[in-house]
Amino acid sequence: MMADTGNVRNNEAEGRYELAVDGQLAIAAYDRREGALVFTHTQVPEALEGQGVGSRLVKAALADARAQNLKVVPLCEFVAAYIERHPQEQDLLALDAPG
After folding, report:
1. What's the CA gap between 12 and 17, in Å, rounded?
2. DSSP type of residue 64
3. Which among 2, 5, 29, 47 would be 20 to 30 A from 61, CA to CA?
4. Are 33 and 98 in contact (CB under 8 A)?
5. How many CB atoms neighbour CB 1 within 10 A?
6. What is the pLDDT of residues 56-68, one digit of tens each?
C-alpha cells in the first residue's frame, strides 16, 4: 500500500490520477497507450501549491504504473522533472515512446 502518498486514486474513466486535499483536487492526467501511461498535464490548485501535493500525486501515479508493469511517457513538464529528480524512477521511462 502507498502509505506516504495518501489517498491518490486512479480515475480511469477520466484518465487521471486524483488527490483530494482540503476539499480541493490535484490531478495528473494521462492517456493510456499500449503498455504505457502518457502523462499530459498535472494540475495542483493554487491553495495547495508548495506543499508537495504534486510530488505525492506523481509518486503514487508512478508507483501504480510500476505495479501494472507500464512504462511512462512524461509529456508533462512536472512529471518529467520529478522523474529527473528521482533516478530510481527512471527505469519507468518508455525509451521507444510512441507518438
Report:
1. 8
2. H
3. 47
4. yes
5. 3
6. 999 999 999 999 9
DSSP symbols for 71-83: EEEE-SHHHHHHH
Whether 66 contacts 5, CB under 8 Å = no
Global pTM value: 0.89
Residues 4-10: contacts with CB within 8 Å, 24+ apart?
Answer: 4/56, 4/59, 5/56, 5/57, 5/59, 5/60, 5/63, 6/56, 6/60, 8/56, 8/57, 8/60, 8/61, 8/64, 10/61, 10/64
37-53 pLDDT per residue, tens: 999 999 999 999 999 99
- 30: which 3 cell numbers? 494521462
